[in-house]
Amino acid sequence: MFTTKPTTHQHHTTLPSGSRNNDDVIETRLWLEEHNWLYGLLHRKDNVSPTFRLPDLISASVSLVFTHQDAPKRIFQFMGSELVLRSLQTPRRRESMWRQQYQLLLELQRSPANRHPNPKFQLDQLTTACVALCRGLDQSGDGILLQARRNMAARAHQGTETTSD
Fold this sequence. Notes:
mainly alpha
């Protein structure tokens, strides 16, 4: 059984100006194989200063896939030819991603390619496809770590634009 001890000092509970809150991340699920691969990236010795967490790595995967003009085609091709052949009982892990990358996947989920008469894919399948595609192109994951830095810089830049308005 876990218990918590009350603290004797007070913590500053207000968010600093321009900081992010939980509304900026969206919950998703990731299939186990891709989760395990990202978990390996998370614990790589060169994932430092800062250490990127799974929301950063998942979002970087989505961003990397969407750098290609044919991103929707690549994603649906992977899901329709590889992901669909996996067991329906494949475990999934609950994770989060940044809202900006979620918006990309939401648009894709609402696209004609995901409507009748085509099969309907869910957010976890779209997310998993992005990670799998990145893994297929760069097993080392170096590109994901670099993209996570770019995404972080873009979020910081966005934060300064919204606080100075």
